[in-house]
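ARCHIVE CARD
Drawer: 12
Card no.: 0347
Subject: one protein chain, sequence and derived structure
Cross-reference: see card 0346
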Amino acid sequence: MYKLFLLKINLALTLLLLFVCANLKAQDNPIKQAFEFPTKEIYDLHVDKHGFLWIASDLGVARYDGINCVHFSNPRQISLGCTNLLEDNYGRIWFNNFNGQIFYIEHETVTLLESYKFNNERNFPRMVLFHDQLLATSDKGLFVLNTKNLTGTYISNNTYTSSLAVLKNQVLVHGDKVWYCYNEAAGLKKLSYAGDEEINGNVYLLTKNTYRDTVYMMVNPAGIVKKLMVLNDTLKQVDQIAFGRFINTISITPNNQWINTNDCSYSLKTGEKVQGYNLSAIVNDLEGNTWFSSLYYGLLIQYKKDIAGKTIIPELDNGDLVISIRNYKDKLLVGTQKGFLILYDPVSKNTVFKIKVSPTAGSINYIAAINADEYILASSVATYKINIPTKKVTELVNIKTVKQLCYDEKAIYIASTSGLFVIPHERSDRVNQQIMNAFGHVFKYSAIDNYFYLRLRCRTIAYFPNQASLFVSIKNSLFKIDKNGMKPFLFNNDQVYAASLVYLNNRLYIGTISNGMLVVEKDSVKRISVQNGLFSKSIFKIKPIDKNLWILGSGPLQLFNTQQKVLVDNYEFPDRSASQVFDLEGANQMIYLATSSGLENFPLVKNAGDKRLKNYLLYIKVNNKIVTKNSKLKLAYEENNVLFNIGIPAYLKARDIYIKYCLATKTDSTWLTTEPGERTIHFSSLMPGNYTFKAIAVDPRLGVADTMISYSFSIDRPWWGSTIFKIMLALLFLLIILYGYAIMLRKRMALKKAFDTQQQLILAERQRISSEMHDDIGSGVFTIQSLANKASKAGNASPEIDQIKNQVNELSAKIREVIWSTHVGNDNLEMLIYYIYAQIHQLFEYLEIKLVSEMPDDIPDLKITVQSRRTVYLLVKEIVHNAIKHSKATTIGLKMFTDEQALYISVYDNGIGINPDNQISKGSANGMGLGNIRSRIEKLNGHLSIENNNGAHINIKIPLNALRVSEFDKNLTKWQLFITKLLKIPAETQEGK
């Protein structure tokens, strides 16, 4: 039953509200529902110094900025219903609930005032602010709070106080039929009262605000308002008004005083009435709107009256609309939806003429002048030309539905649904040829009609003389036609989709479908976008009026100054949310708009200087938690998600306002924009560093806000990114490197020790082999050789004895070579060279060929390997052997010398020469063993060259590195020794230990 009763009550209230709103439709500036506030019972309103609207209702306190409604509460709040909204000198918002608790809102947080003991009070307090003090009524007398330091105290006067009123230099206090005045110096001072006595059964309450020196007091249920004044030490009643109804509140505004009864609100200044709303508060915001709080209908608003007025054309039929407008000699030439052309004088408000363009003509969608008195009219089905003075109308048969035209001294250029047309002003072969050449012979020519045409459906057109080009939008893609033919017009290498084209003041203006407006000059193209203050990305129409451009787009109306090349933001424009704008024109300092709700007009006047847009940084959230706005916020590394909430108190067109913002660093200061109506800006995963957040609100009508929001903050580097940590990490890394290096040295010295041990063993073994071969095998071979020699001297020696003798001699020579090669003392370059010269000289001892040899003067002390020593010896021996056997020379020369890098060997003769390309192995008729020679040289990474110049000249170059013994460094550096000592490497592994 209870729920059914509430449902009936809500239905009745809804019907009553619909009835009241229906009655208000006839008013020019009706009261409307503001927005969907969650309750219909509101007790108080307050507009703070920034322009935000504060709302106290049965659901608590909320703040509204035109878009966002933020509700505030405190966990210790024992009831939600609130009233008495106040704002102190420090920006705090004060209120109390009906259980007597007093709260204040600061930095987006609601705080309970502990010093006011609400549990000891019978009623909720009445509060006022007086200078830097908050005064509240109390059963103990008067509660006084210092708003600077938030310390409070009670002033006892042996009676309770029930209401307060603030005068210029004092506060009037009402108690139990007793009156006081209060100020900081004198405290409470009793006043005498000269007026009607208080009657039992009535409640007497002062209104907290006063009008000049007048104090207002409500008397309920009698429904009386008393006017009081303090004169010296006397409170005098100067007037009273009987309303006969229960008085909810009295609202004092700077220019008015409203008595709000449960039936009607009355203006004491103008006599105006607002009936049927059961209002509780009336306030004016900084834009000039009036806000009403109702106990039945919630939050209501009466917007500031729109500057636009209605233009009534007497001859316009009922239900007909003005679709197109042109200025003709300060009169309005208008085309209507029903196909009429009307010339209207806005000064005299009379119609000069009205004609039907054609019986079959549809709406006149476009009007354009082709000279002072002749105009083109484009209807929805045909195109006409009219002479205004004679009113003669001619249909252009072949041109259907003109969308736009322009002209120059040669021709008229028309974009239409039936094609693109160029109509010369005169029939002339010379002019025709000029047109053909100017546009690259793109057009076809009709000799009968004397025009050029291109059968492509066109939307808009403009001739740009600075580039001698015709710009035309075909299927929304923009093309440029000039002497080089027809090509797409590109911006930043992208196609341009144009909806409107205008040539004005040596510039071409392009209204695009989704890329703002482009301004084309002779050698440059500039984009006007949201960054420059343009509100609409999509531009439907650009209309030139008085050397300026009016922009109709997806957003509100805007004006572009073509001389300064900037958007103008200091003019007040009408509200365009309720109707569609078809066309606009200027005449007699007025702007006329053809809209779906009729022909409207408004004066082009600048905004007052005090109507600048305001913006404020309301709060900052870090990792989704609200933080206090310090002068400079210092955040930890993980606190890198930062959100800024911007408050912009604006109510007429709040959702059109956007924010330009920048998060500046040392290297980046790029400006970005929010979407219209957006009020939060979020940055996530910010890197460590210093930042400055800058933001400013932009209203398409009022321009940018009066102040720039600027807030600096920093994000610390993580502990692993600190300088100390980096130094410690570098030291640790260095220690690791040193330790690794020391380990490498340790292994190297151990390996060197093993290598040295192995080398000593190898050398000892070589020495043993050499000694045994010399002592044992050598002596045995020598004995055999001696016996063979003795046997061969015998007269009866057989031929085999001579063979044995020869074999033993050869074996003896080879054994000597092996002994030489294995002997440790021969492992150096000097011994090698001496040995080679000795062996070669011994080879020529019994030959008739002359040997010419040359020893080097300086031989480096170089330890060489056994293998390289033997290879070099056999290499030289084989070359000389080949020369002896095959060269047929009488002289053979041998020369060996060295430098810092290589060993050089030269063998030459005066014989028949050799063929260097013949690489047949030794033993061939002509090969001379070149294959073996090349193979040995390759093993030593050497180089062979053969020349024939009165004999063979063989030159060999062998790098010393190919001969040198590879061994560990003999000595460690001082640094290496220091590291081994530092890391306590065992001494026996160190060099020389």
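Annotation on reverse: The two ends are 110 Å apart (CA to CA). Confidence is low (pLDDT under 50) at residues 1-27, 919-928, 987-993.
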